[in-house]
Amino acid sequence: MKKAKKSELRYNEDDERTLLEDILGFIKVFVVSAIVILLFVNFVAHPVRVDGRSMYPTLKDGEFGFTNVGGVLLNGVKRGDIVVVTMEEKGQKTHWVKRVIGMPGDTISCVNDIVFINGKVLDETQYIDPDYRQSCVDQFGYFNKVPNADNTDVQDFEEVKLGDDEYYVMGDNRPYSKDSRYVGPVKKSQLFAKKMLVLLPISDIGVKD
Questions:
Q1: What is the active site of this protein (predicted)?
Q2: What is the dihedral of CA 188, 189, 190, 194, to 10 degrees?
């Protein structure tokens, strides 16, 4: 049997070394990519799919996009912001997309489907179509009538004084929204993200805030 030449042995060793380097390179790229994706999803943007009609017509059922996770921490929260709220239902964490209506220290109430903040009417015309509001009043009797888990209706509510770390959130589509009228105020720590960049369907692409 002929012995392999040194040049052939060197070639095989170099070939194996190159293959190993390629594998290690692939693993490094995979790990780095995974870390970048995790950082992006947890600290920059988080994917969200709208489930239900609670934010209609601002957000429609089935729309998909990303929310700004760092927005709450960096820019704070103001009245009228669309936020993603972390809630716990049946022992599991879930996310609700709602709008901030009441801020810490506010006194909020609702009379004849009109929201009052510190005794003054809250202007909601920027995100609630008056015609849509009227159609809900005609159909349900009240714009903010919400069927809840007990099969009772949450309509108007008396004054609620918010604490230093409490926010009152509501859906734009009041007849179909389970929100602070049912579960009470939420804490700032529950405000997971704000705004939403809708990507799908393509016809609805845009920032909703």
A1: 54, 98
A2: 70
